[in-house]
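In the current project phase, our protein records have gained a structure token line. A sample record follows, to show the layout:
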Amino acid sequence: MTRIPRIPNLGGAKAFVLHRPHPTVQAITRQLSAIGLVTVDCWPELLPEVLAADFVFFDADLGFDEQFPWKPGEAPMPLVALIGSEAPGRIEWALSHKADAQLLKPVGNAGVYSALLIARQSFEARKHLAGEIAALRQRVAERQTIVRAVAALSKGTDDGRAYAQLRSLAMSWQISVEDAARRIVAMTSQDVADDDTTSEEGGSDQSHRA
């Protein structure tokens, strides 16, 4: 059975509207105030306090990257694009900032509430997906580290016995297998570096003797 997302209470949330003075800003502000949000208008760039905002509405027609105190696509809150021009370049720019919802200009007496809900839902889904991807990448990295540690312990002989040795080391060190693998890999890398240094020093001595 599909779980229906609960409609959040937006009262008391703060929204920044990054748009030049325009009737669009007034229309958005009226709707936000009616919903119970605190609104901050700004132009041509966002104020530092925006990092504590719950939502940001931004002008997709005249916007540019330097207006935002974060890299494109890395906003820490839901974004709503205010779109008046359908020029491909402007749409592409808005997409580069990963707008979570959009409002078409001119903005009338409705639409802001649904844009807020859609933006919040899209943002949370995107954050959840990014967290899952990061966790998967971490697991892959840990498995690769375990493989390297097993290879270092086995030295080309019995991988099964080397893995058992890795688990035994983890138990004796009272750490996880992954942490033990990282320690083994680090020790192996250090040994290789020491051997390289010794070889270089030996070669230097021989050249001096020659």
